[in-house]
């Protein structure tokens, strides 16, 4: 089970979030409910339930949706949702606290704390670029951001999702062909804070960063390219984004 921005339920949630940002909260709620009704697997139900929880203002109902999202995350229980557990438990704890159920609030705060810093993605990992490199070479921090041209990155970024690396290759600076390398971290790494717990819970895109170099151990040549329409839609969302890069 893998997160994809082209998934029908994910697209609906993105549409709902755009309506929220435009102040159209009632329309947004309708879109999130549609996403929930259209969800056909555990990951889609997890994503839709979390979107509804974020949107809801009634605390008891918000709690129900967060607990529903948690139940589907527990059913999935793999690297796709692992980074979501701390924020899920914390949100549930906050709801119980507002409902004056301090025992359950404290229990969930403890679960949130115990589920942090358990990064265990086994990979394989990928890095997208237009640079022509060889197996054994190192990718290091210090490059210019693909998203903000005036930002020099303090980390090197990579992902466990092949199509995500392909998108990064398309956006990368340079005139060479798009390349996706299989990489191996040479040091510790962390969830990419620029995507983790932003619009979606946890780190569904399995995006990471490291201050240590990445060693190239191979290249993938048969990855699926995004369509021109998909790339244009991504560029438009990127152009509208005013969020600063966490560097």
Euclidean distance between termini CA atoms = 30 Å
CATH architecture of the largest domain: Alpha-Beta Barrel
What is the percent of helical residues? 40-55%
Give the helix/strand class.
alpha+beta
- Tertiary shape: globular
Count of DSSP H/I helices: 8
In CATH terms, the superfamily of the largest domain is Rifampin ADP-ribosyltransferase domain
Please tell me how large the radius of gyration is: 19 Å
Largest sheet: 4 strands, antiparallel
Low-confidence segments: none
Strand order of the largest sheet: 1-4-7-2
Tell me, rounded to a whole number, the average pLDDT: 90
What string gives the helices and strands in order?
Answer: HHHHHHEEEHEEEEH
Question: What is the CATH C level class of the largest domain, in words?
Answer: Alpha Beta
Measured by DSSP, the beta-strand proportion falls in 5-15%
Compute the number of strand runs.
7
Question: How many structural domains can be distinguished in the coordinates?
Answer: 2
CATH topology heading of the largest domain: ADP-ribosylation fold
